[in-house]
Amino acid sequence: MQLANTVTVPLLRIAFGSVFFVAALAKAYAWGDFYHQLLPYRLPFSPELLYLGACALTALETWIGMAVLLRVETGLAIRTAQVLLAFMIPLTIWGSLLDIPSCGCYGSLLVRKPWVATIEDCVLLLLSFLLLQNACAKVESLSEHGDWTDRLKLALPIINALAIFIYGLASWQSVLNN
């Protein structure tokens, strides 16, 4: 099913990509806050592995957000977001059952209950299916990117995701020792 309004699809794509990108930036802004918001979930991981997972999640959200916003590898980014959301929805339901004060979705930038995040994640999951059914979500390959500006556009989400991940690792000791 194609969305009838050609203005609606780009706006939905921008909203979808922005949610992931802003969430990643908010987590990266205060690594320690985000890490400490994950602790009440009682996940069966060591502190080091939990922190590494927090860094990887933030890098993945950065890549998803930038890829969708820049329209590079959009289909792959949306499918990756669907897998991530399929993991996050049960996790936020679990957080609601534990009565956790903040879901951690936007780090300390936006404090809200996990049940609110569950609703947002369900809406994002539905939106991702709509975006995948439209032409703006076609998977682009490297061979379709001819000149250097297109290749740079393809590399930007990956470079930024790696930079966020390395930045998170650089904060490793200061966060875990607090």
Shape: globular
Taking the alpha carbons of the first and last residues, their distance comes to 51 Å
Average pLDDT level? 84
Number of helices: 7
User: Nearest-angstrom radius of gyration?
Assistant: 17 Å
The tally of beta strands, per DSSP, is 0
Estimate what percentage of residues fall within beta strands. Answer: under 5%
Q: Structural class of the helix and strand makeup?
A: mainly alpha
Low-confidence stretches: 139-143
General description of the model:
By secondary structure, the chain is mainly alpha-helical. The protein has helices at residues 8-29, 31-38, 47-70, 74-97, 114-132, 148-170, 172-176. It contains 7 helices and no strands. The radius of gyration is 17 Å and the shape is globular. The termini are far apart.
Which helices and strands occur, and which strands form pairs?
Blueprint: H1 8-29, H2 31-38, H3 47-70, H4 74-97, H5 114-132, H6 148-170, H7 172-176
Helix pairs in contact: 1-3, 1-5, 2-3, 3-4, 3-6, 4-5
Q: Main attributes?
A:
single chain, 178 residues, mainly alpha, 7 helices, 0% strand
Short recap of the structure:
This protein has helices spanning 8-29, 31-38, 47-70, 74-97, 114-132, 148-170, 172-176.
